[in-house]
Amino acid sequence: MADDISYKLDDPAYIDDKIRQEESEKDLVYEAMKSPYTKLLMEHFLLSYIDLTDTAILSGLQKNVYPLYDELKELRGLKGVKEHLAYIRDKQDDYSKKNIAKYLKKSIEQYLPIVKRQDIDYE
Question: What does the pLDDT read at residue 87?
Answer without folding.
Answer: 94
